[in-house]
Design brief:
This protein has 241 residues and is of the alpha/beta class. It has a single domain (5-228), classed as Alanine racemase (TIM Barrel, Alpha-Beta Barrel), CATH 3.20.20.10. Helices cover 37% and strands 16% of the residues. It is built from nine helices and eight strands. Strands 7-6-5-4-3-2-1-8 form an eight-stranded parallel β-sheet. Helix 1 packs across helix 2 (44-52). The longest helix is centred in the first third of the chain and has 22 residues, at 5-26. Bound molecules: pyridoxal-5'-phosphate (PLP). Pyridoxal-5'-phosphate (PLP) is lined by residues 38, 40, 61, 82-83, 166, 207-209, 223-227.
């Protein structure tokens, strides 16, 4: 794919039309659904073209890639880390990410709190749940969610924004419906339950394949890569883990 502002704007319009159709189907206001541009594995030219087409929220899977592309972000850019975060990369993440969608351990929460203090930053956190129970996915197991949330420290440096999940990768978007519904039930149960959860409103769920189902089940962030930037080439050396 050629990364020009025109192609990016056309792809975004197609995705936005899907978002609006899904909202119309379930009576939601499309302004409640935010589009996260997942630029992982894509070159900086893709980011620039997307930015020129109006993109401001960008998602990366790997801390190193986030740092490479976004340590000096264009004005107004919000940087989202959506991939698993190891504690040895936490400092870089705390310095470079604005929102982290993939937090799933209390040790990491405490570490990020300390680092945010040192970096004099506020971080928005979402907690990843492995709703489908697939062994290959990271995140809290369903039975861990409530004890984990109850144990979160109260701190001015971290804003607990909501929950994230990745739908099961079965090829049938309907298979994501119950996992997404479950995520929403936890969000509903905790939102406003005490001061820590005063703004616990976000549901980060839905990707290129299953964003309609996610919106019907309440997504406030859809994380879209392929439908905006084209297929990813995992053979490229720059993307090797
Ligand atoms: C890659 C990725 C996405 C985007 O997936 P697409 O199917 O390309 O839209 C969304 N969320 C996470 C966590 C990802 O790793």
């Amino acid at each position: 794919m050629e990364f020009t502002p025109e192609t990016m704007a056309a792809n975004a319009a197609a995705v936005q039309a899907r978002i609006e159709a899904a909202c119309a189907k379930c009576g939601r206001d499309p302004s409640e659904v935010h589009l996260l541009w997942v630029s992982k594995t894509k070159p900086i030219e893709a980011v620039r073209a997307a930015y020129a087409a109006g993109a401001r929220d960008f998602g990366e899977n790997r801390v190193q890639e986030l740092v490479e592309k976004f340590s000096d972000p264009l004005p107004g850019v919000v940087r989202h880390l959506i991939g698993p975060l190891q504690s040895n990369k936490a400092r870089k993440a705390a310095a470079c990410a604005d929102v982290i969608h993939s937090v799933a351990s209390l040790d990491l929460v405490r570490r990020l709190d300390q680092l945010a203090e040192e970096e004099n930053r506020t971080l928005r956190l979402l907690f990843q749940v492995n709703c489908s129970g697939e062994g290959t996915k990271s995140g809290l197991a369903p039975e861990e969610v409530e004890p984990f949330l109850r144990a979160l420290p109260e701190t001015p440096r971290l804003l607990y924004s909501g929950l994230m999940t990745i739908g099961p990768n079965t090829g049938n978007p309907e298979d994501a419906r119950l996992p997404f519904r479950r995520l929403r039930a936890w969000r509903d149960a905790f939102l406003g339950s005490d001061g820590r959860f005063a703004r616990f409103s976000e549901l980060s769920m839905g990707m290129s394949e299953d964003l309609e189902v996610a919106i019907e089940e309440g997504a406030t962030w859809v994380r879209v890569g392929t439908a905006l930037f084209g297929a990813r080439d995992y053979g490229a050396p720059a993307t090797k883990e």
